[in-house]
Design brief:
- It is built from 2 helices and no strands.
- The chain has one domain.
- The chain starts with a helix and ends with a helix.
Length: 39
C-alpha cells in the first residue's frame, strides 16, 4: 500500500509533459512486447 502512495506522490511531482512522455514510452514498450509475443 505504501508503494502505491509513493508512486502516486511521484506522479504528482511530474509535470504533465513528463507524465505524458513516460506514459507514451510505457505504452510503446507494451505494444512492442505484444507484437513480440504474437509472432
Amino acid at each position: 500500500m505504501d508503494a502505491i502512495v509513493a508512486t502516486l506522490d511521484w506522479f504528482n511531482t511530474l509535470n504533465f509533459r513528463e507524465w505524458f512522455i513516460t506514459g507514451g514510452v510505457v505504452a510503446l514498450v507494451v505494444f512492442l512486447l505484444m507484437i513480440d509475443y504474437r509472432t
